[in-house]
Amino acid sequence: MKNKIILAFLMFTGFAFAQSKNIDQKVEALLRQMTLEEKIGQLNQYTGDNAATGPITINPNKQTEIKQGLIGSMLNILGTKYTRQYQELAMQSRLKIPLLFGQDVIHGYKTTFPIPLAEAASWDLEAMELTARIAATEAAAAGIHWTFAPMVDISRDPRWGRVMEGAGEDTYLGSKIAYARVKGFQGNLGDVTSVMACVKHFAAYGAAVGGRDYNSVDMSNRMLWETYLPPFKAGLDAGAATFMNAFNDLNGIPATGNAYLQRDILKGKWNFKGFVVSDWGSIGEMVNHGYTKDNKEAALAAITAGSDMDMESNAYRYHLAQLVKEKKVPMALIDDAVKRILRKKFELGLFDDPFKFNNEEREQKALNNPEHRKVARAMAAKSIVLLKNEKGILPLSKSTKTIAFIGPLVKEYKQNMGFWSVELPELDYTKEIVSQWDGLQSKVGKNTQLLYAKGCDIEGDSKEGFAEAIAVANQADVVILSIGERRDQSGEAKSRSNLRLPGVQEELVKAIQATGKPVVVLINAGRPLIFNWTADQVPAILYTWWLGSEAGNAIADVLFGDYNPSAKLPMSFPREEGQIPIYYNHFNTGRPAPNETATNYVSAYIDLKNSPKFPFGYGLSYTTFNYSDLQLSKKVMKKNETITVSFTLTNTGKFDGEEVVQLYLKDQVGSVVRPVKELRDFQKVFLKAGASQKITFTIDKEKLAFYNAKLEWAPEPGAFEVQLGASSADIRLKDSFELVF
User: Fold this and answer.
1) Closest by CA position to 81, among listed 144, 136, 137
2) How far apart are CA 676 and CA 737, in angstroms?
3) Which of 89, 358, 658, 708 has a Cα-to-Cα distance from 44 of 20 to 30 A?
4) pLDDT > 60? residue 633
5) Exposed (0-12), middle (13-18) or buried (19+): which is 54, by Cβ within 10 Å?
6) Candidates 104, 124, 170, 279; catalytic one
7) Residues 74, 47: Cα–Cα separation, whole Å
8) Count of beta carbons in the 10 Å neighbourhood of residue 606
9) What is the DSSP letter of 622?
10) Cβ(298)–Cβ(257) under 8 Å?
11) pTM for the whole thing?
């Protein structure tokens, strides 16, 4: 049997090698037939016309350019009907090179899943891979070949609006999620249920100064390599077909023109074989950076640095040919970029059948698959974080007689989609999205009366609705308040200096809390917000992010205990904006504060605690878990050995539930200073009430390694502390061992 498996493996790898070699030969043969203008055409990407309503007509100039083979890719063309129209134009070109169709499929296509930061809170890698797989299936069925996702930027600053698009502050968790999402999107590349992934934004965009979008980034190379690059490498290891460069400059060089990032690291050290696309207009924006004089110089800088495709700058379209003729750009650079793009078109099978993704019957079936909604509901429930539950208010009883559901987001539909959702113009979102009101209505029984009051708007100073809301609350046995941001207050170009609840919403919470009724608050947002009064005074709080198509049903499932919340925060929540950036794996400094009240000549604020309001990895359950009996297989570990860490996890509560067990390591002494702790593994474990399970982790040299001052990735001998717990601030068990060489 073993020999048969080996033979099958060899046959498969031999076939894959032959197929790869065959594609290389086809690419080279096609390249030899192409004029310089046709080659440059492959490096251009344009947006569709009337993208918001469906491009029924095509711009005559673009029609002409497509027919001439002067465009290689389009974005914002939604639906097989329209992608076919564009592809038919490409088939009229001399060499009939098919177009690539890209789209921002960030957290779903027709079926909208929770925003990526919310999904990250699930710590469920299989579930995240599955939602990406479904998003790819729907997008591919609609004629899309390529998604501009996942965003893998590490984000330590919640003022930055794009935190909603990523996986949070931690490099280890972010790397695992990057890998899972790339695998989910790409599946078996070339299959009609898969799309190319695009790992973005390369690199360090999440560290924009002041949390202001598009801003500069300044950091050491060690910080870059240790904290910000690993998720990109994980995406590459998962087989990502494409990368997207970033808007920011890094240490004075715009990422789009940064040869260190694109040539030295990505295509050099990492041997990336796919292609790099600019972000929207980022080649031309190097002029604004003051890095190039004009678009011609920008085109020269970008192609030299390794940017293969120009999204919407027109810099390559109008200047590359002249730069080649002036011998400023070697033909070899053009050929390399073109070959990378052509190879992906061959791998997708577009040369065999340019219309393989254009099947309206398959589109209708995929976009109306009820199984996708089931997954969306489950994923949304997994993403809800229970922040507080005093006196066991939650879960609510289904026999509760009267429930008041109050707040500006109770009856909203489209808000639940969050930012970066695909807005299909023909859809009625009152039918496609389950509002929170609808979800609660379908959950409660006939004997439960559900009351409603809006209370106030998301923004604005008006308190006119307070009196009605208070009156409704006074009639109820329990009050649920749904408050938060608008969906377009988190996302690209949505940086905020003030992270408080907008408008008078927290004043509404105070007014309802003053009624003396049991209160549950739902906070809907795309980032960590600051809501200190609510956090301190309200007995029960669920952070519901933006949960997508099944938001209402998922929230109802958690409120009434049909799903026991298990999510953990992927970002620290600050007490005040003055703490930002705030993250758990900081350095100790030479004068660490010994406690939260110490302020005299230590690294501390004199007017605020150092700790976050809610720490990384934090999240409650309706049940409780006990950690006990920690055991290390050895106390001394040699360089090429491993240590087994085991303990017993017990569900000590009355509900079945899941616990995200987190393993942190602390390197006590290093040749460069090390963080106070670092997440190095985790497991999500389901236990029935009263049950126990032995949990085991393995520590090897990779979990102990870091980048030293010479940027060498290696472990160093010395003492390490093992920490096991329910969050970065809730360590239940500790022990130590020594690494020796």
Assistant:
1) 144
2) 16
3) 358
4) yes
5) middle
6) 279
7) 6
8) 6
9) S
10) yes
11) 0.96
CA atoms of 558 and 566, how far apart (whole Å):
10
- Over its C-alpha atoms, the chain yields an Rg (Å, rounded) of 27
Return the ∠ at Cα 724 (arms to 720 and 729), rounded to 5°: 100
Phi, then psi, of 469 in degrees rounded to 5: -65, -40
The sign of the torsion formed by the CA atoms of 726, 731, 736, 741 equals: positive
CA nearest neighbour of 144 among 106, 196, 184? 196
With beta carbons less than 8 A apart as the criterion, state whether 275 and 344 touch: yes
Residue 156 has pLDDT above 70, yes or no: yes
557 is catalytic: no
- The string of DSSP codes covering 324-388 is HHTTSS-HHHHHHHHHHHHHHHHHTTTTT-TTTT--HHHHHHHHT-HHHHHHHHHHHHHH-EEEE
CB-CB contact of 62 with 34 (8 Å): no
CA 719 to the chain's CA centroid: 34
The count of other CB atoms within 10 Å of the CB of residue 126 is: 10
CA angle 189, 191, 193 (to 5 degrees): 105
- What are the tokens at 219? 């950091």
Instruction: State the Cα–Cα distance between residues 430 and 414, nearest whole angstrom.
Output: 8
Whole-number percent of the chain with pLDDT over 90? 94
In the chain, the N- to C-terminal Cα span, in Å, equals 40
Q: Map residue 228 onto helix, strand or coil.
A: helix
* pLDDT tens-digit series, residues 64-110: 999 999 999 999 999 999 999 999 999 999 999 999 999 999 999 99
Half-sphere exposure of 207 (CA within 13 A, CB side): 18
Backbone dihedral angles phi then psi of residue 283, each to the nearest 5 degrees: -65, -50
- pLDDT surpasses 70 at 17: no
